User: What shape does this take?
Amino acid sequence: MNRIFILTPLIVLLIICIFSLVYLLSGKDPNKPPSALLNKDVPIFESSSLYNAMDIIKTKDIENKKILINFFASWCSPCKIEHPLFFEIRKKYPELYLLGFNHKDPPSDAKKYLEDDGNPYDFVGVDSDGLIALEFGVFGLPETYLINEDGKIIYKFMGPITKDILKNEIEPLL
Amino acid sequence: MSSLVGFLSLVFAIGINFYLLLSRYIFKFQKQKFNLFIRLSSLLTLLSFFSLMYAYVVSDFSNYNVFQNSHSNKPLIYKISGTWGNHEGSMLLWLSILSIFSFFFSFTKNIDESFQRLTLIIQSLLHILFGLFIVFTSNPFLVNSILVNEGLGLNPILQDPGLAVHPPILYGGYVGYSIVFSIAIAGLFQNTDDEWLYVAKKWSLISWTFLTGGIALGSYWAYYELGWGGWWFWDPVENISLMPWIAGIALVHSLMMVRGEQAIKKWIVFLSILCFSLSVFGTFLVRSGILTSVHSFAADASRGIFILLIFFIVTGFGFLVFLLKEPKKSNALNLLFINKVSALVINNILMIIATLTILLGTIYPIIIEVLYNKRISVGGPYFNSTVIPIMIPGFLLMSVAPILSWQTNKINNSKKYVLAFIILSVLVLIQSYFLDFNTWGFVGLLLGFWIILASIIAIFSSYIIKFNIKFFKIINPHVAHIGVGIAIIGITCSSVFQNELDFNLNEGDKFNVNGKTVLFEKIETTNEINFQSLRGKFLFDIEKNQSKEIEAGKNYYPVSKMITSEAGILHQWNKDIYFILGDQKNNEWFVKVLINPFVSFIWLGVIIMVYSGLMAVSRR
Assistant: This one.
C-alpha cells in the first residue's frame, strides 16, 4: 500500500512526460491551433465584390468546385509576403477558384494594394466588419482555407503560407 | 571577443563540474580543494554571464543574440535587462543563479563534510545538464554571420523597470529549490541523522522568499503594463510560478514543524523534490513554447525535447531515490484532533491538492490536444472555482495554527478567539449588508480580518511585548500570517468589488468618476528615444486646487512594430483609479476607468511576507 503511494509521483511523471513528448513530436505549433471547422461544411456567408457592390458571392455560388479562400488586408504586412505565392498557384492550378476576403480595410486602400502587388484572386469579397472572418474562426491575418468539392474545409493555415507549406501541405490536397 | 570569453568560460565551468562528478569515484579530493573547484566553476559561469551582459551594454552586434534582441538606442537599464530578456540569455541566467547557490552553499559551516560534498555533486550534475542544454540548443554566444550596425530591438513589452528585475528574482526562487532538492537527495543517500533538515530549512526559506517577491513583481507588472486592470490572469506562466510557491509553503511549514517524525520527513523529501521538479517543469513549459502566453519566446521543438529530458531525468532520479531509500525510522506521528502536527498535516494535504489542481488545469490543454486534436483553454473560471475553495480551510487554520499545542487539543485563551470570531463575523456581515452583498466578498473579508485579528490576539496574549529584534523574531510566524491576511483583503476587494466605467469622450470633456469630476484635458503625442508615445491627459478632481494629473495611453515601438498600452493609475491608500485609453472612433476617444479598491493591500501583504521570510532566514 505504502509503496503504491510512493510510486504515484513516478507514474504521474511518466504520464506528463509521455503526453508532452507526443505533443512536441507531433510537430504541433501553438501558433497553429487545430480548427474546429476542419472537415466541416463551409460557413454560410454573403459578400459583395470589392469592385462592384452589386456583385454578390454566396456560399451557394461556390458549390462543386475546389476553392482556396484567403483572408488578407492592405495593413497586414505578412499578407504582402505570401501574396506572390498566389500568382504561382494561379498559374499552376488554373482550375482552382481563388477567393480573397478583404478584412477590415478601407476599399480604397485595398484597391491600391491589389493594384500595386497585383490581383491573383478570382473574386475579392469585402469583409469590412470582420463578420465573415468571425464565421470562419479567423485568429489573425493572413489565414488560408482549402475547400473541397463537397463544400468541406479540408485545410487551414494561420499566418503567411510559404513555398514549403505550399509544396508539402497544400499541393498534395489539390 | 567578449562572446569568446563567455563561451569558453561556460564550457570550462561545465568541464569542472564533470571533473567533480567523477572525482567522487576516481580522485580523492581534500575538502578545501573540492570546494575551491566548486567556487571556480561558479565564478566562471558568472564570468560567462557578465561577458554576455557586457556585449549587451556595448551593443556588440557581432554577437547574434545581441543583434536579435538589442538596439543601440535603448536606455542602458534595458540593455542590461536585455541580457535575460530572451530565451538564451535567460537560460544562462538560470545557470548562473544555480552557480551562485552552489557557491554560497560551499561556505556552509558546521555540517558533515561528506554530506556537503554529496549535495554539491548533485548540484554539479544539474549544472552539467543545464550547461549542455545551453551549449547545444541555446547558445547565446553565436557569432553573427553578417556585419551589422544596428540590432533588431527588444520586445517592447519587456521594456519596463519592474520586468527588468522580475526574472532574476523569480529565478532566485526557482533555482533556489535546486539546492533544497540536492540537500534532500543527499540526506536520503547518507541517511545518518536529521542534520540536513536544518540546512534545508534555511535554503527553502530563501527560495520561497525570492519566489514570493518574483511572483509579486510579475503580477504588479501585469497590473500596470498589460492594461487590463487585473493583476492575476491564471496565465499558464503565472500558474507555473504558483505551483512551486504553494508546494513551497507546505515545505517551509513542514521543515519548521518537524520533530523527527518519520512521516513528516517523508513529506519533506517529497516536497523538496516536488518543488524543484515543478520549477524545472515550468522552465520546460515556458521554454518549449508548448503553451502560448505573454512570456513565451520563440518555440523550438529540439529545445523542448532537451528540457523535457532534463525534467524527466531530474524528477525521475529524485523520486526513484525517494522510492528506494526511505528516511530512517524514528518518532511516530503525534496526531490529535487539533494540535500542531494535525494542523500541519491538514495544511500539507490542502497545499498538495491545490498544487495538483493547478497542475491539472495547466497541462489539461496539452492532454486534450494530443488525444482529440482540439485546442481548449483553461482559464480563470476553472481556477477560481477550484483552487480558492481548496485553500479556504487552510486560511481558516492558519489564523490559530501558530498557537496550537504540540501535545494536547487545548487552545490557550480559546474563549477569546471564539468571541473575537463572532464579533468579527457580525461586523463583516453588517458591512456586507450595506454594500452589495456578495458571498465571495463576505468570505474573503471575514477570512482576511480573522487571520489578522487572531494573529494579533495571539501576539498580545502569548508574549510579553518588547521592541527588540528577538521579540520580532519570536512573533515572526504571526507577522507572516498577518501579511497573508492583508493580502487576502486586498485580493478580495480588488476582484469582487471592482467597478468599471466606460466613456466616449472628446478632448476637453468633463466626466464623473466616483463622485469626483475629471477633465479629459488633451491628447499628446511625443517622440521618445526608441518609441512614440500617445498620451491622454486627465485632471482628476478639478474642483479642488490640488487636482491630480493622470496620463494613460499607448507606446508605439517602430523597430519591432509593436504597440503597448500604458495604463494611468492614481494610487490612493484605499483604492486605485485605473485609466485605460482605448481607440479613437468618430473623433471620440474610448476611455475605460476601473476603480480597484484596496489593491495596495496586496502589495503591502506581500512586502510583509517577504520581510518575514527574510527574518526567518536570519533566525538561528
Q: What stands out?
A: The CA atoms of residues 14 and 128 of chain B lie 6 Å apart. The radius of gyration of chain B is 26 Å. Residues 402-497 of chain B form one domain. The beta strands of chain B are 499-505, 510-513, 516-527, 532-540, 548-557, 562-566, 568-571, 575-585, 588-597.
